[in-house]
User: Fold FHA domain-containing protein from Hyphomonas polymorpha PS728.
Amino acid sequence: MAAEECAGLLDDRGLCTVCVAPYLQVDAGALTVAKVGGAVALPMSIGNLSGVQRPLFVTGLWSREASGPWREESLGWERLDAGESRPLSIVANQIERAGAHGLQLLVAMASRWRWRQENFAFTANLTLMVEDPNSEKGPVVNIGGESAGHGNLVYISGKNDARPAIQQTDQAVALPLVRAEREERRLGLRGIDADNWVPRNAEFSWLGFGEGDAPFNGPIMTQDGMLAIGRSRTRRQGGDGDVRLLVFGASDELDESASLLISRRHFELYIESDRLILRVTAGSGLRVNANAYGEGKIVRLADGDVIAPLVSSPERLGLRVSFRVEHGSARQIIFQRLSQVRK
Assistant:
């Protein structure tokens, strides 16, 4: 998440495995005996293996058995510092017959830096193999397919079972966490909606801009992963901005007084959680689709939106946003000036 510090070492799905490195395990010492038809509580731990001292935030936890509905689990904590693990407990309460029982976990996490936040979701699966409760020995629930020699079994007492009433696992069982992109969009954690998203490598195209007033077409390549839009000269022109906005009259003459109403850094554009985000940095604010937003406000942009930097006279200058979508992925984002174009 701290892309400004690590030069944006992120993959195309927006995940940095240096900052975002969670792990999940069933804890050693878990009680492993229960009655058939009862429930098994699985004490677990979730931890943060980040090697750069970045905290993670667990923003949601759900579980389900087989293909049943997700049920939200209660957590009394959120923050996981680097190197830290914290406990949680999941209950499997539908173990009433012999055979394979699936238990699935869904964990929502966030990586935060300043005002920015990237959201992710991961799933983990446990396979519970339950033997016939009428057998001489009690049915066995095998956590994650681990072997009996490692003590990673849950025993559910059968009719003639002579095992001690209290048994425990000998060591922890690691559960691989798998990225769950569809669940991220379903939960509204990432993406434009359930079916569409903006990848980090989306191409930005600029129409109607003067020579050097916009970057070359392509993905965002700045160190902090943001584009600075305003009155300032662009990097191509020797300045510190990325897109230059000036106001011109009907005869293509520069309107200096109107241009001075645009801040040197009026707003920023960046991709966050598979969405195109605008952050207002000008004290005078701006409009998006005629709605006014003040300094510090964050706006999620969509296909067809119009950005007007001048709140009092939005008709003088505008930027229309257009998405070119392929199989749900917005591969190209086009920004078109809606004013007199500088030649």
